[in-house]
Fold these 3 entries.
Entry 1:
Amino acid sequence: MTLQAANPQPDELLVSALIRTCLQYMVPAKTLCRVALNSPNWKPGLLSWAGSDALESAFRLPFEHLLSHHTVFNYATSFMSSTQYRQTVDGELQHRLGGTGAHLSALMQNATHAAMGWRFCNQCVRAELASLGYSYWHRSHNLPAVTACWTHATALRQTAWPVAGSSIRLVLPHEAESCLCRRRSPTGFELKLAQLSAEALLPSRPLADQASAAWYRGLLTEGGLISAGSAVSAGALADILVKAAGVRSLKEMGLLPRMRNPWPALMVREGTKVPFMPLKHLMLRAALATLPNAAIAALNHRPSGPPPSSSIKLDSHYARAASKTLRSLATVVESGISTEAFLRRAGCWGAYKHRKHEMPRLRHVVLNFRASDATLKRLGTGKRLYRNFPNETT
Ligand SMILES: [Zn+2]
């Protein structure tokens, strides 16, 4: 069976054009896959791709054009370096004969994060019905976490069919049952995310080579958010994202930054080598681009703990307490005690254990203790540290 598939429109998903073809020829999707596309086992979802020759001849368009203009492949690889991208496309070109694009499916998952339904914009639908007589499913409306149409600045509508599901519904947007993604106008963050996500689809790949920590640090330094060479505060960066995107939507996507997984801070940490999914890059970029300047606190990391002056005060307080205890031990202790037991009696074990590097005077008292008869484990007399301190018994 020779079939001329419907010509895909700008930003139209390949599967949307297949849906229109099925509707035009009045054939079930299963038949189309089996007879016309020579892929009997293919069960496509809205964002699916199958790199078969049959698909190319059905659409009469070259493989690379279909992949780049009518799938979410560009989005999935948007932050990949140009070299890696070329290798991926060339690898797919070599394997496509008779293939189903299975080895691309893991990569494409980068573009199906978050279980949202098939989405469309009412105003786009109206314009398409007026000019074409039908509507279609757009790539840019069905990207992860996108809830707004960038062209019309309106909230998208969504159906109950998840984009990650694997079954075609022979329905076009103007006939679909749907509800609004958000019951309010899109926020600045949502519009920016929609805009950046649409840019990620462009064949010119404007976001490539902008994924490194060094690139982010340049952006933050230019914006006056960090000083050159400073570490970034994980908490302050997470706050910026949470303020922009909202706790609820971050939780829905499983992307709420946590103490154990402060992913925004990891993205900007020097030396980071781990690749991050496009959605994380785009959310962080949208958050940094849309938060009012007044709400952005400087992101420089400030070390926790008391300032040096209070460390000195604490050191002399604990050293005095430990000296007093050491003097009392001479009369109380018959057999020796451990350093821990000594410091617990003096009430400064915790401070010594965790902050001894800030407490030189307390360390001196501990050495005196370990050189005395009160200690369970006396310092060897040949040890350098022992020689540096007076032995009260000699
Ligand atoms: Zn629209």
Note: Residues 308-387 form one domain.
Entry 2:
Amino acid sequence: MAHFEKANSIGEWFDQRLATKTLERVLAKEYWIPKDINFLWAMGMVLAITFGILLVSGIFLLMYYQPNVDTAFDSVNYTIMQEVGFGWLWRHVHAVAASVVFLIIYIHMFTGIYYGSYKKGREIIWVSGMLLFVAFSAEAFSGYMLPWGQMSYWAGMVITNLFSMGSLEMNGVVEWIRGDYVPGQAFLTRFFMLHVLLIPVAILALIGIHFGALRIPHVNNQNGEELDYEVEAEKYKSGNKAASKVIAFANDFMSKDMFVVAVYLIFFFYLTFWNYSFAMDPVNFDPADGLKTPAHIYPEWYFLWSYEILRPFSKDIGLLAFAFAQVIFVLLPWLDRSPNAVPASRRGLFKYWFWIMLANMIVLTTMGKLPPEGINNTIGLVSALLFIGQWLALPFVTMFEKKV
Ligand code: HEM
């Protein structure tokens, strides 16, 4: 048994047992953040807060939701929306947060790409971020199944069909995933389990890794300047804060982060109270019916770009193109061959690569919502080929970039 002195305060009592002062120093008081960053660096905190909102609102919905094919639809659309006091509010908060979280994830991701924040020791931040993106996608998809409306059912049917692997027709796999020949009770129960337990736990673990991976390389800055953190931190600690290029995470940087979070919450609650319908598909207000296929089956807006990469091709090539789109972002730190971790505007051909990629993903998103006919097919095909071509070209685009 270790020797313990009598503590003089509650703080000291905890410090003796949990080393809370060391934790506070390493994670907050002496966790150094460069001064030269803008509001885009608050998106990580905005994401963490949005995830918190999803957890809390989800717990309230869970108190009345029933994961049963006969009662799920009514438990959401009748019990929660009409009978339970403020049930509608929790549902709107949850639906809006589920949609907005993807907008913020895309902004956060493209900020990272623009500033080259996936390079030079930041690979684990990037890969854990991409795994978070995949986990959030799975979380959104499984949540979409739960109200058991028409879109839940048919999106579930179409997406699980992908696992038949094109003309390999591995139907056994599809049925194994569904637990039945078509989406039914077994399907709903397992997606319920994934949505409320397994994926949230995975997300929490990934957020832990993502934050941990930030501690040593620190966040990047607007000019990609390499800082000597020890020298800059000494200036800060000695009281020469103006000359130092860094500030402490707590309380200095936190207060700036919280300002951006507050502005974001105004936007968030504006959507929740006045414009929530964008986050809910009208077709999903009809109960699931396995005998009535909706005229157009399309995913939520945040999946449209990858859906549009799948659609213009034949079954097999479409599936390969879709799989390519899902994994290729993970490889970015290794496909970008340039040594420069600076903003895209200061890099050679990469700056065109970046803006074309962003614009093309917006085109793909727009096309994914339109019915696949006439000129839409041609635009979709060209955009999908451009997307794939850009990624294949990336090593060559960046290989000869001069060091800045
Ligand atoms: C819920 C999901 C996520 C949370 C809570 C989160 C949180 C954070 C936080 C707090 C930071 C530090 C401050 C900042 O730069 O904003 C950060 C940095 C970073 N994140 Fe995420 N993130 C998430 C998802 C992602 C995704 C999907 C990616 C894309 C692959 C990503 C890539 C990065 C990168 C590259 C950095 C380093 C930025 C830099 O060094 O300047 N993150 N993240």
Note: The longest helix spans residues 185-215.
Entry 3:
Amino acid sequence: MLETPRVVENGNIGPVNSAKVPRYSGEPTFALLPRLRDLETEGRTADIKIIGAPFDTGVSYRPGARFGPSHVRQSSRLLRPYNPGTSTSPFAQVQVADAGDMALNPFNIKEAISSIEEDALALTEDGATLLTIGGDHTIALPLLRAASKRAGEPVALLHFDAHLDTWDTYFGADYTHGTPFRRAAEEGVINSSALCHVGTRGPLYGKKDLDDDEAFGFGIVSSADIFHKGVGEVVSMLRDRIGNSPLYISLDIDVLDPAHAPGTGTPEAGGMTSRELLEIFRGLRGLNLVGADVVEVLPGYDHAELTGIAAAHASYDLLSLMADLRANA
Ligand SMILES: [Mn+2]
């Protein structure tokens, strides 16, 4: 690491210095941040860790999210250290590092789910905040289990997605990318009074899908609501619903319109723009964000890095919220 010139502010080791090394060269850690293992070699650790979860054995339609982490990292090379959207320098406020990828069994969903929970707990043992890049949405269940264990209570959830992901089973399978939030509700790892889907749209199997979902405690701010009410009103509704609860944000990139994120597993027309998504995130500043994931990026269906760039920027704004919260704690 010492031979790579880096931006260092407030004693925090930041991205590769792009005035000295062009951003398209070298290994693509997220936002060209240091690797966690390099920091640990120097006896340091990180306040915020970015971890890849390359797993897509839970998908029902297009496969390929196992290649999401490496694609989002590659698409994150152009991110710069200062975020004008929040007027903060997240990588200077706290130490942020790329922790690499989890090693997940592609032939055994239950084993992979257990591995994700164990790895998430190990990475947060020192109090770090975790941002996980998937992977299909199956990974949210073990991440929510770990987040609620660390929080010591069920966590609030803002779930950005075209879909509810509270279905029961698919082809008899309990653990899929369409069922994580029903399982999380059944297991009691999410706070039934502080749950909301954001950006949902598209056809359902029937009205029962919505009735079941409501019974678990979920509110819905649909994609149409965002269009009709606007970002400001949506933000204030979400803030009211979440309050001061420990909050987990799960972002399925298919919440964006396919025009903004074509490279995803189950695309639906009529989604929000990436501008709306980033502005909603910025409106959540100060909420007690304890963890987040960004899932369902499929490079095989992406074009010109559209989806990868949207996921990288969404991740950057989530990191900005986490860094600001920790710096002002
Ligand atoms: Mn999903």
Note: The first strand starts at residue 6 and ends at 9.
